[in-house]
Write a structure and sequence with these properties.
The chain is mainly beta and 846 residues long. 4% of the residues lie in helices and 41% in strands.
Length: 846
């Protein structure tokens, strides 16, 4: 299927159109033919190279498991080197595919050969490389030609010491300037090694999109993305580097996160009309010689560096003038968070006239600023951004970064690095992450939170309230057999202000220990739907009338039954439900999938994803007992959370009564460590102990993902807050002998799914260590997972000396698991010594 990538449109329009085309592609439209390899019919009966060369134009090659099945893990022990054409090379649904060590994929379209179309779309999707690479060499050959290259969901475990994981060379061989338009896109891919992607261009029209990727440096002297010239000249088009994460692990270091240079061996190249660097996270860009998060050598381009988060790097910005720089072009630096970097910037004096700075948060720079960074024209903040935690650079509630940006460069439908909507408040937040009203947690039933057919979640999603809109999807529990109760339908009901909301089984089967649920609270883009005589149609459907869904057949939403809370009365609803769009009504309906009558007064919570949100997708079954959910925010992330609902393609589709649980599938040895799936729990008609039905082929499900939660591993994205009981002040009498104990209590705002590690140490004041109190040079303490407090004893030495009250402090450093905003506690030692009367007046005459 030819890709439609219209980069001359505004970025928001490009994303909508592009995503829509991909959505259609995911539905199976537009391929001349599908070919399976290995073991397919000719030309795919021998090598992959022969298959790629031999299939007709507009084909799709699906790589399946080596035994011919469409489910499993397969390693390709061969390389591909072929001419480019209209082709999609991808993994078959449910199969994780890796190219073995040293094997790579290369496509060439530089020659004027009959087998290379003037215009084509080449797609490489969902393929991994254990230690290989992808290389594309391209020229456009006529003024009317359009060549599109899309790499989607690529995984490269190790790029090698002298290799780029992905290399795209445009204009490498040309003797005259390339004609036509070339677009290269690398999206939603995971790269690690020395250099993530190397992009080079020359005179002509080209567009480059590096979107939603993650690069992790695992070697020394690494760099994330490099964009360089092949030859001097003037190129047109747009380069977009958006929504990427570039960081180093413990064994690697980075010379540059993003490196853009314009000087070729024969002179400067204007790389593009516009270069957009937006919504990226650069973390730990440092090396012995100094690492720069964003290093740019401009030449006549318009650079927009907006809404990035740069932390823990040697240099946040390094802007150098090309030797031939002529003073043309602009660089705008806005809406960024530059925090805990050694040096803010190095900027050539020649560039000072084209650089503008506004609405940035700059804090924690450990050395004096260098270069000629202009003063901010507006909105600069020099305060702590108050992240959720040191390793979680998302603003917490109350952060000064919230609503502090300029909306001038942000479209209303833009998304942040988590895939959540931008501008949730009056203005865009600073940095790569927007504060959202979505909270998610994995909840597991145990003896302490379960009664009968329900299990309460307490304050895991904040203070409970009956008006909140929650959503739940059953989950499998690793290491435990699937509970018999998970063959039922799940709902939510409000228990009380202390225990809060409870997932429960509608079929009244007891909740078994170990049963698990993904639970999300969504305050934005959600609403309560109540069935009534006015909206029940066909007996078993209820029409939804809401502006988020009306006349919107492409909406993706999820629905959960809401038992009580703020509803006028309570009601069970032990029926599987699905969402269907009815063109005759211009409305979505909730339909009972067992054809049971829809009762009056049933409450449903409905959560609607933003149009073409990257955190929403539709998955379809292929007749197996498992439906893979391949998504960049879920792949390789065992603690991500999603909400799932049934979806019927049209009103004439067969009922879908399938029960399911979310299940994480591990793939040992693969570049992708695992992926999420829906595991069948039957259709409700199988007797206990009988095999469960597989998902009928074509059965569809909506999946909505909590982007903040998917961005990290370890439960909810919110780190619990630490606080001292009694404001961290403890007063204790010193006593006459021995020692006394001052007991300080630390409370967590909520229980943590992981242990919270703290380091405590005493600091002297007017009281002296080892004279007035027991010196603590540094003790590691643990708040166990699931607990909400820790008692810290501090020992005080007794004395009999008359003296004023004394004080000292106990300082706490958070090592992991919580927010480090806790002030030092103060211990006051109260003097309780007095002068004895008989010592002063022994006989009444002295």
């Amino acid at each position: 299927m030819p890709l439609l990538i219209l980069d001359h449109l505004p970025s928001s329009a490009v994303r909508r159109i592009f995503t829509f085309v991909l959505l259609l592609g995911a539905m199976g439209a537009g391929h001349a033919a599908d070919f399976f390899w290995p073991g397919g019919p000719a030309p795919c009966h021998s090598t992959l190279q022969a298959c790629v060369v031999g299939v007709p134009d507009h084909s799709r090659i699906l790589i399946r498991d080596g035994d011919g099945s469409a489910d499993g893990y397969f390693v390709v022990q061969q390389s591909v080197d072929a001419f480019a054409k209209n082709l999609e090379l991808t993994a078959a649904p449910g199969v994780v595919v890796d190219f073995g060590a040293g094997h790579s994929v290369r496509f060439d379209s530089t020659l004027m050969l009959p087998e290379i179309p003037a215009s084509f779309s080449l797609v490489i999707q969902d393929l991994g490389f254990l230690s290989g690479w992808i290389e594309i060499v391209s020229d456009a050959q006529s003024a009317s030609s359009s060549r599109q290259y899309l790499l989607e969901g690529v995984r490269i475990r190790q790029t090698g010491l002298d290799r780029c994981g992905v290399r795209f060379r445009h204009g490498f061989y040309y003797t005259t300037p390339p004609l036509g338009t070339v677009t290269f896109s690398l999206r939603n891919s995971q790269l690690s090694g020395r250099i993530g992607a190397c992009i080079s261009g020359a005179t002509g029209a080209w567009n480059v999109n590096l979107i939603g990727n993650r690069f992790r440096a695992t070697t020394a002297l690494a760099s994330g993305f490099e964009i360089t010239p092949e030859r001097a000249g003037f190129a047109s088009g747009q380069i977009r580097i958006t929504n990427n994460t570039i960081e180093a692990d413990a064994s690697g270091n980075l010379v540059a996160g993003l490196l853009i240079t314009t000087h070729a061996s024969d002179g400067p190249l204007k790389l593009a009309d516009q270069v957009l660097v937006r919504n990226n996270l650069f973390r730990g860009i440092s090396s012995p010689g100094g690492g720069s998060a964003i290093a740019i050598e401009p030449y006549d381009e318009t650079f927009l560096i907006t809404n990035n988060t740069v932390i823990d790097s040697n240099f946040a910005l390094a802007l150098a003038a090309d030797p031939g720089f002529d003073g043309i072009g602009t660089i705008r630096i806005a809406n960024n968070i530059l925090y805990r970097n050694e040096t803010l910037s190095i900027i050539s004096p020649e560039l000072s006239g084209i650089v503008s700075v506004d609405h940035n948060l700059i804090y924690g720079t450990t050395q004096a600023l260098r270069g000629d960074l202009p003063a901010s024209t507006a909105g600069e903040l020099n305060v702590d951004p108050e992240f959720l935690a040191r390793d979680n650079p998302r603003p917490r509630t109350g952060s000064p970064a919230i609503d502090a940006g300029s909306n001038a460069l942000v479209a209303a439908d833009d998304v942040d690095l988590d895939g959540n909507s931008r501008r949730t408040g009056t203005a865009v937040d600073l940095g790569a992450f927007e504060t959202t009203a979505t909270l998610s947690a994995r909840h597991q039933a145990d003896a302490g939170n379960t009664f009968a057919n329900y299990t309460w979640i307490g304050s895991a999603l904040g203070a409970p309230a009956p008006s909140q809109r929650l959503f739940t999807t059953p989950m499998a529990t690793p290491g435990l057999p699937l509970q018999e109760s998970s063959r039922g339908n799940a709902g939510l009901f409000f228990l009380d202000a202390e225990r809060g909301w409870s997932p429960y089984w509608e079929h009244l089967v007891s909740m078994e220990p170990g049963a698990a649920f993904a639970v999300s609270r969504m305050d934005d883009r959600s609403f309560r739907h109540l069935t009534s005589t006015g909206n029940i149609v066909n007996g078993f459907q209820s029409t939804i009338d809401h502006p988020l869904l009306n006349n919107n057949p492409f909406a993706i939403a999820t629905v959960s039954h809401h038992y009580n809370g703020d509803l006028p009365f309570d009601s069970y609803h032990d029926h599987p439900v699905a969402l269907i769009y009815r063109n005759d009504l211009g409305r979505w309906v909730i339909e009972n999938q067992d054809a049971a009558p829809m009762a009056l007064g049933i409450g449903f919570n409905v959560w609607v994803a933003p149009t073409f949100s990257p955190n929403a997708t539709i998955v379809a079954a292929t007749g197996l007992g498992r439906v893979p959910i391949r998504h960049p925010r879920l792949d390789g992330n065992a603690c991500a959370l999603a909400q799932v609902s049934r979806r019927l393609p049209n009103p004439s589709s067969p009922f879908n009564p399938m029960r399911y649980v979310l299940d994480y599938v591990t793939v040992p040895g693969a570049t992708l460590s695992g992926y999420w799936s829906l595991l069948s729990r039957g259709n409700g008609s199988e007797p206990p102990g009988f095999p469960l039905a597989a998902f009928p082929d074509g059965t569809q499900f909506n999946v909505l993902i909590d982007g903040r939660n998917a961005g990290q591993c370890g439960g909810t994205a919110r780190e619990p807050l630490l606080r001292w009981v009694n404001s961290g002040v403890c007063t204790v009498a010193e006593g006459q002998s021995g020692t006394s104990t001052c007991l300080l209590r630390i409370d967590l705002s909520e229980s943590s799914a992981e242990p919270v590690l703290l380091l405590t140490a005493t600091e002297p004041g007017t009281a002296l260590s080892d004279i007035d109190y027991v010196f603590d040079p540094g003790t590691i303490r643990t708040i166990p997972a699931g607990s909400t407090h820790l008692d810290v004893p501090v020992q005080i030495f007794a004395d009999t000396q008359i003296e004023p009250d004394e004080m000292f402090q106990l300082r706490v450093t958070v090592l992991s698991g919580a927010a480090n905003l806790l002030p030092a506690a103060t211990i006051v030692i109260g003097n309780d010594d007095t002068q004895a009367v008989d010592a002063l007046f022994r006989d009444g005459f002295e």
